[in-house]
From TrEMBL:
PANTHER family: CYTOCHROME P450 4V2, CYTOCHROME P450 FAMILY 4. This is Cytochrome P450 4V2-like isoform X2. It comes from the Eukaryota. It comes from Alligator sinensis. The keyword Transferase does not apply. Gene3D superfamilies: Cytochrome P450. The lineage of its organism: Eukaryota, Metazoa, Chordata, Craniata, Vertebrata.
Length: 396
């Protein structure tokens, strides 16, 4: 798909069939904007249905009124001040990762992918559910293995049209492994939700203000995404059901750890390939932290301007989600071409980010592209590592 886009860079769009699905490939800022800026064409493509057994119809996979209501309800939980509370978890887990990586200093090269991925999983799990699963110290746990098995099975099935029918899929080993992993994942989430709901009930009975983050002793209580979901209400004052909450927690786990781990791994890989950029990052870190061992604060992060540009450039070259798709719920026109209802519009962000008209010498790693003076005036849909428009990543 990526090669096809590059070979047809000057074409406005490409039409193709993927199995039984009619598709168009979009990889220019103006054509991508038509789809992502639409308030009508917000339905995810057919292949997202393979996420339904695990994630249900949560924020990632829902559509229509349910998506609008759920998005409005959950958005406040991603407010910057709330996300800042998660920094304590990130510091704790990052310290574990650093201690693991220190053991390899001055030794042979090694693959750090798993170490970084497990760190991301620990962070996401604790911020999502308030549960420390210790993946970095025990990556053989049943839940950790089930997450990776399920993710692999879903990605494989999405690329294999002959496995799309449910009855056919269950005839293969992958289908049986899918059901086994699904049972483990849902059992774990159900148990955590039950425990958290029980804790909340006890707090309420003691007339402890749950939203104040206070224990009876006066000590600060760390809140997780799940805690906030247990308190969330829709416009009618209705709370989410257990199933609704499980959908969102599982979605947060799936979407959060995988994409974050990919971004971190690519950023580290690119820095390893470019010593001059690595040196600049090192200098910036020294300027901000010096010899201090104090935890990183939000104030510190704001000072890491060059590192931020490095991460953005890494996401330009290697977006965590290299392509994603919408199924059109109504006809639309793209550069004068009528694209009919039911077509799958595939936004190829990997190719979009390599448009030489927007990013000269697109294959070169240049963090300076994201200096304010260089990114000013850039098309708002030319760089979309977190999607864009009304259905962008809620944490972006």
């Amino acid at each position: 798909m990526m090669q096809c886009c590059e070979e047809n860079r000057n074409q406005p769009l490409l039409k193709l069939w993927i199995g039984p699905l009619p598709c168009v490939l979009l990889y220019h800022p103006d054509t991508v904007e038509v789809i992502l800026n639409s308030l009508k064409n917000i339905d995810k493509s057919y292949t997202y249905k393979f996420l339904h057994p695990w994630l249900g119809t949560g924020l990632l996979t829902s559509t229509g009124d349910k998506w609008r209501s759920r998005r409005k309800m959950i958005t406040p939980t991603f407010h910057f001040t709330i996300l800042a509370d998660f920094l304590e978890v990130m510091n704790e887990q990052a310290n574990i990762l650093v201690r693991k990586l220190e053991k390899h200093v001055d030794k042979e090269p090694f693959d750090c992918f798993l170490d970084i991925t497990l760190c991301a999983l620990d962070i996401i799990c604790e911020t999502a559910m308030g549960k420390n699963i210790g993946a970095q110290k025990n990556n053989d746990s049943e839940y950790v293995q089930a997450i990776y098995k399920m993710s692999d099975l879903i990605h494989h099935r999405q690329k294999a049209p002959w496995l799309w029918p449910d009855l056919t899929y269950l005839l293969f080993q992958g289908g049986r492994e899918h059901n086994r992993s699904l049972k483990i994942l849902h059992s774990f989430t159900d148990k955590v939700i039950t425990e958290k709901a029980s804790e909340k009930k006890k707090h309420d009975e003691r007339k402890c203000d749950f939203d104040s983050n206070c224990e009876p002793s006066g000590s600060k209580k760390r809140r997780a995404f799940l805690d906030m979901l247990l308190n969330a209400m829709d416009n009618g004052g209705n709370k989410l059901s257990y199933l609704d909450i499980r959908e969102e927690v599982d979605t947060f786990m799936f979407e959060g750890h995988d994409t974050t781990a990919a971004a971190m791994n690519w950023a580290i890989y690119i820095l390893g390939c470019h010593p001059e950029a690595q040196k600049k990052v090192h200098q910036e870190l020294d300027e901000v932290f010096g010899d201090s061992d104090c935890p990183v604060t939000v104030h510190d992060l704001k000072k890491l301007r060059y590192l931020e540009c490095v991460v953005k450039e890494a996401l330009r070259l290697f977006p965590s989600v290299p392509f994603f798709a919408r199924t059109l719920s109504q006809d639309c026109y793209i550069r004068g071409f009528k694209v009919p209802k039911g077509t799958n519009a595939i936004i190829v962000s990997y190719a979009l980010h390599r448009d030489p008209g927007v990013f000269p010498d697109p294959e070169e790693f240049r963090p300076e592209r994201f200096f304010p003076e260089n990114s000013s005036g850039r098309h708002p849909y030319a760089y979309i590592p977190f999607s864009a428009g009304p259905r962008n990543c809620i944490g972006a």
